[in-house]
Amino acid sequence: VMTQVAVEVEPYGEVVQEIDLQLDYGNLSPLAISLLQEDLQKATERAQEMLLGAPLDAMDWLEAVVQTSMREALYDRVPEFTVKIEVKSGTRSVLKIYMIPQGDTVRKTEVNVASDSLPTSIFWNTKKYFENRLAELEGLPVAFVGRHVPTLQRRMQEELNHSSAVKRFHVDMRPEVFAGNTTKLVIHANSDKYVVQAEGRLDMGKKERNVSLLLHTGVMLTPKHEVYLQTEFYPEDYTWKFLPSYQYHITKATDFAYQYDIKEEDHRIRLEQSLNDAWYIKAQRTWRAKENEFTVGYHIHPYLSAEYILNSDEYWLRLIGHI
């Protein structure tokens, strides 16, 4: 004979009917708080389940259980923060959680726009907007920001997708976040249709025409074939050069270009090879002038490059400001 006994347990006396959850984030920014809330959601739901409906007479020991359980759950989800928990008992109980950052924190943020096809200056407003957005990460643990890089990039991509440049000028804009004591955002902005580049050049060690301005305006016929007009201006003697050109992008790192100098009625070919994100080399031949030119270049900053140039007659150092 098997006997079954069913036992029902009900709270005695008054119980917790409502939970007032209060999260104290200190002076964290709205962006930081939104990231934390995603991490804390499940942990706080668990605490509310434990307290809701509990008898007030049992709160003396239940508070300690909730605090221990919450600390363990929050440590698993937000190990970059020290957590302090307070429980105030009542039919409307208050659960207050203090979030305190620990470890290395983000002290500084930087935003740069990088483009191979458009002047970065036209994205000035975009750069300033994201400088303000990224500054909201200052004071957060570096490890926390690093863990949320995919979320940050996804949110920023959504904002960039609504940019007028994306819709009107066929610009593809991609954010890339690098977490660290100085957290950086690089916005890669390129057009699959138009190419516009402007440079101011200062040549140190060159005998003449050592200051010049260059404008490159082109159209991509296909992803590999581009036609463009290179315009050069030399303030020293107020002379202009116009070079209708064709460029073939052999690979992402290798370019071949043909140019025709209208004024000199001369032909020029150039081969350029990127060695990595910073270094590149160029070789150029001007046919009628019988002049060879070799260049080693380095991208110091998205707005500044340096080149060491050697041609048939002389050599010099060139500083290039990317407008």
Extract low-pLDDT stretches: none
- In spatial order, strands of the major sheet run 7-8-9-10-11-12-13-14-15-16
- How helical, in percent, are the residues? 10-25%
The whole-number mean of residue pLDDT values reads 87
First CA to last CA: what distance?
A: 93 Å
- Give the percentage of residues in beta strands: 35-45%
Instruction: Name the structural class.
Output: alpha+beta
Helix/strand order: EHHEEEHHHHEEEEEEEEEEEE
Q: Tell me, briefly, the overall form.
A: elongated
Counted beta strands: 16
Major β-sheet profile: 10 strands, antiparallel, barrel
How many separate helices?
6
Alpha-carbon Rg, integer: 31 Å
In short:
By secondary structure, the protein is of the alpha+beta class. 24% of the residues lie in helices and 45% in strands.
Written overview of the protein:
This protein has helices spanning 30-51, 59-77, 124-134, 142-147, 149-161, 164-168, and strands spanning 18-24, 81-88, 92-101, 108-114, 171-178, 182-191, 194-204, 211-220, 225-234, 239-249, 254-261, 266-274, 279-286, 291-301, 304-311, 315-322. A ten-stranded antiparallel β-barrel has the order 7-8-9-10-11-12-13-14-15-16. Strands 1-3-2 form a three-stranded mixed beta sheet, covered by helices on one side. The protein is α+β, with helices and mostly antiparallel strands and 323 residues long. A hairpin with a 4-residue loop joins β10 and β11. Helices cover 24% and strands 45% of the residues.
